[in-house]
Amino acid sequence: MMNKAIRHSLLGGLLALGLGGMSLPVAAGGGSEISEAPYNEIQLNPISMREAETLVGQPGVYFFDVNTLEIWADGFIPGAVFFNVQNWRELLPKNKDAVMVFYCANRLCTASNMAARETMKLGYTGVRHMADGIFGWRMSGRTTEKP
User: Fold this and answer.
1) I need a surface site. Which of 5, 14, 46, 121 has the fewest CB within 10 A?
2) Entry pTM
3) In this structure, are residues 75 and 119 in contact, taking their beta carbons and an 8 Å threshold?
4) Residues 85-95: tens digit of each pLDDT
């Protein structure tokens, strides 16, 4: 087993070399042993904050906040529904073509990616993903609500 410093140095060196044109699986860490990152067949449909802002309050458009309860309590996109619950399927609209915007904290958060993909697996076609999340929304000075 390699120690972390050697492992990070080795990975950095491989990345700097461009891997010599070789195709290797993507690796993910997270504080534990590095393992192959999962590949998702379902591609997300991104939405910018600017476009999402034009959809706030529109009929038939749903915003789903997939953050922790603590982040949710600090403010969310107006009209958004807290989605980080066990019975999340019950929150989905009956219309499978409805526009739904999923977001979490920021681009490093993957909870909204997973929620959006799981919703798409259920046959929903209007699923959008806002990668900048609530932190990007707040930092840009856009309006938020609190519970």
Assistant:
1) 5
2) 0.73
3) no
4) 999 999 999 99
